[in-house]
Amino acid sequence: MPFKFYLETYGCSLNMADSDLIVGRLHHLDAERVDTIENANIVILNTCGVKEPTEDRIIHRLKELSTGSQPVIVTGCLPRISFNRLSEAIPGFAAILGPQSLESLGPIVERVIAGERGILHLDSDSTSKLNYFQGPPDSVICTIPICEGCVGDCAYCAVKFARTTVQSYPSNEIVDILRRCVHLGYKEIRLTAQDAGAFGHDTGESLSSLLFEVGLIAGNHRIRLGMFNPNLVKDNLTSFLDSMSSERFFRFFHVPLQSGSNRILRLMNRYYTVEEWEEVVSHIITRFPDATIATDIIVGFPGETDADFQDTLNILQSVRPSVINVSKYGDRPGTKSSKSTEKVDTDVKKNRSRQLSLLVADIISEKNQDWIGWEGPVLITGNAAKEGFQCRTHTYKPVIVHDMCDIGHVVNVRITEGHRTHLIGSIV
Questions:
Q1: pLDDT digits 0-9 by tens, 55-90
Q2: What is the dihedral of CA 108, 113, 115, 120, to 10 degrees?
C-alpha cells in the first residue's frame, strides 16, 4: 500500500547517489518522500562510517529517533563498520541493511510497514542498483555512480569493510542514464565512485573508454568526474586525459595525496609515491593549464614525524592545488592503523592541522585573487547558501552572483572579488 517516508543522508557523494537510488526504489512501491518526520510512516537513515565525528553524530541522531513513534531503518556504510554501537543506539530498530541491499529494501520496507521489527540484512544483492536510478527533483544537478568498492587496502580506511572490492556498473547502463539525465534537463552531472580510477578493474572495461563515450553526448550540460587515485591512471594517463578533452567535462581533477612523505604513504598502504602523484598532476596541468586540482591530506597519521609533516607542507607549497581537503587522522574500528603503537599526540595533531589549514587558506586565497577580472561563461546551478546564486566556471570554481538568474542557464560574468571559499561575479 502507498506510504510516506523520511530520508536523511550522511557522507560522501556516493552516499548521496545511493539516497537517490533509495528514493527510486521506494517510488516503485508508490511511496512518497516527505520533508518532515511527523508526516512520515517510516524513517530511513543512510549512514556514513568514514570518520568518528560523523559516526558520533549519527549515533546521537539514532538515540533521538529511538524515542519517536516511527519505525527506523538504518542503511549505508555504518552497519558493516560499527554494527554493535549502532544497534545499541537504537535497540528497537525496524531494520538494518548494508549499502548494497537496495533490491531487498523494497520487501523489507513492506514488512516494516506491516509491523515487523528487528530485521537484519547485511548481505549484498546481485541486482544492479542503477535499475532504480532517479535524479533529484527541483535540481539541475544529479549524480551517477559508476562503481562502488575499491581495489586498494588503505591502512586507515573502514569503508572497505562496507563497500568491499570494486563492483563496476556496465558502461552502456551509465551512458544510457547520462543521456536520460541530459534529456530531463540536468546541467551538472557528476560521475561518482569511492575511487573512479577503479572503474572496470573487475569487468575489463576502462575508465577512459567510458569517459570518451559520455563526452560525446550532446547537450548544454557539463560532467564532473569524481576522485581517482593516481596509481590507477598513471599508466594510461595520455588516453585518460584524451578522453576528458571534450568540452562537456569540467576541468576538475580530484587526485588525493594524503601525505607528502613517501614513508607515511607506505605505512598508509597507498600504492604510489609523492613523485608519481606530482607527475600525474603535472601532466594534467600541462594538458589543461587552467584545470582545478583538488587533493586530500590526512594529518597526524600514526608514526608521522615533524619531518614527514614538513614534507607535506613543502609539496603543497610547491604544487599549490586549488582545493585541499584537510582531515585529522582518527582511528576507525578494525583498521590496521588503529592498532598502531605510534599514535601522534592529540595536541601535536591539532597544531599540525592548524598550521596546514593556515597554509591552505593562503594558497586558496591567493589563487582566487588571480581570478579577479576574468570574464567568461558560468553555469548557474542553484541558490547560494546565504544569498545570490551558486555558479560554476568551466574549471568548477564556485562563483556567487547577486544578479537575478535562471537556474540551469549559462551566463557571462566578470569576477570582481576572490574569497577563500568562492569567487564573486557580476553578469556582463
A1: 999 999 999 999 989 999 999 999 999 999 999 999
A2: 20
> Which CATH fold would you assign to the domain 134-369?
pyruvate-formate lyase- activating enzyme (3.80.30)
DSSP E strand stretches across 4-125: 4-9, 32-33, 42-47, 72-76, 95-97, 119-121
| Tens digits of residue pLDDT in 350-360 | 999 999 999 99
**C-alpha distances in Å from residue 320, one per residue of 42, 214, 244, 399:** 47, 30, 22, 20
- Residue 159 burial (10 A CB sphere; 0-12, 13-18, 19+): buried
Computed on alpha carbons and rounded to an integer, the radius of gyration of the chain in Å comes to 22
The CATH homologous superfamily of the domain defined by 4-121: Methylthiotransferase, N-terminal domain (3.40.50.12160)
- In tens, the pLDDT along 388-419 reads 999 999 999 999 999 999 999 999 999 999 99
Domain at 375-427, CATH class:
mainly beta
What pLDDT is stored for residue 2 in this prediction? 83
Confidence of residue 323 (pLDDT cuts 50, 70, 90): very high
DSSP assignment letter at 124: P
pTM of the model: 0.95
Helices 207-215 and 171-184, packing angle to 10 deg: 30
Identify each DSSP E strand in 99-255 by its residue range.
119-121, 141-145, 147-148, 167-168, 188-192, 222-225, 252-254
Would the pLDDT of 1 be above 80? no
Helix (H) or strand (E) holding 413: strand 410-418
Q: What CA–CA distance (Å, rounded) separates 22 from 63?
A: 23
Domain segments of the chain as ranges: 4-121, 134-369, 375-427
Residue 176 has which C-alpha cell? 544510457
Amino acid identity at 404: M
pLDDT per residue as tens digits for the range 195-222: 999 999 999 999 999 999 999 999 999 9
Q: In what order do the strands lie in the sheet with 252-254?
A: 252-254, 292-299, 323-328
Residue pair 418/372 in contact (Cβ under 8 Å)? The answer is: yes
